[in-house]
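step: validate -> pass
step: tokenize input -> pass
step: predict -> running
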Amino acid sequence: MKKGIIKSLRLALSAGIISGTMINCSSDDISENNGGTPGSDNNRWITIAGSLQGTVPGDGNGGMIIYSLSEEDAKNPEKEISIFDNGFIVPSQRTSRLYTSTDGNTLYALPYTGDNGGLFSRYKIGGGANFVQEGTSVNIAPYVTNAPRWGKLYDNDRTGIANNISGVTNKYDNNVYQYTRGTATTVAIDLQNPQIKTNVSFEVPLTSAEEVLGHYIFRMDSPALNRAGNKLYIGTWMRKINPATGQVDNTTYAKLGSKTIILDYPSLTNPKVITSTISHGDTSGYRSLNSFLSDDGNVYQATSRDQDGGHILKINQSNEYDDSYVFNLDTALGVQGVTVETWKYAGNGIAYLMYSHNGAAVSTLTNNPQSYLARIDLNAKTAVQVDLPYDVDMYFFQHQGILAHGGKVYVAISPVGKDGNIYVIDRNTGTVTKGAKLKNRAGAQFIGAF
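step: predict -> pass
step: emit ->
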């Protein structure tokens, strides 16, 4: 079934159906919307993304479709759009990872897996299904495979960073286990004139005490620049080998503290690993950025797969974890086992976070636990669930984009296979307003507003 859907998408494509660095805080926030020409500063294009079913509802493996509408239309509850019938099919076997420019007029896409996996492209956004490629595509697959993880830096739309770890092997000395490591590769992509700017490969060793137990970095993702613009933070996903067998350890074991790789920027040299003692979760995120530069000059991260519950961590301007900052999401939300699915810094110390938790109802359609949205205050260390029409079939794990713009936060959500809406949230007050209606398709879901 998956192959049939992908084949139909490719047929649709061929048939012509789809027609000096300043570091800012990690928000797309610019001027308030006062109306005006769509695509202008005060009536920004908002691009909505949806993923199709591959083999089972909500798996997102059947391809990606996008559609752009003006900010004015996105706010209008009388507006109805059907992106799965009228949108632009993003060339990708599964889902491409997307970002847009700060002004909303340019789309950056990097497909994940398949024949065009790792082929970076830039598109001009013209409204509706009007996405026109600008320049030539750049193939980064030879460096980071056809399944790279990447993110757009907040450097005035100049740079994207792609990462991969390959060739993970066990090291023995006289048949005695020593460590497990892979080769990390980081590629800097020029977003303005699509090309590779920098490409480096390196090993990222842990301490000898950590490595001899089998711990290693399995994945790296979610790049973020510090305020000074001279250090690049990259989140990590940790795994462990059983030294006795040489195989991945799937038992319950004591995890290490959360870790981040730091590289000099823009040279991408001198790798260093910093470790948090507050959390034991991964910092790589999944389908979207997971580290954000705040107005206060510090970078904040969310954790996943944390045996002590979800956390927000703080990296200070000395490029070290500030372990005096303790923000436990389980405690703040009054639940256990918070899993952060995606989140977005919205400015003024406020962020919005999609999550699930232990005990959440499990959907019989997707066999996944229900997701929720929370408003979090990084300064007060509080988290409050946003008042939305929740449904057991809401599944945000694959969500890629929450848009923060003009003091408003835009989220495109629905239960899998059911109609939904764009919701517009006042960043400062948390007031929720229902926007345009989103027509859905069986097994499909909406995975971002950009």
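step: describe -> The longest strand covers residues 159-173.
step: cleanup -> pass
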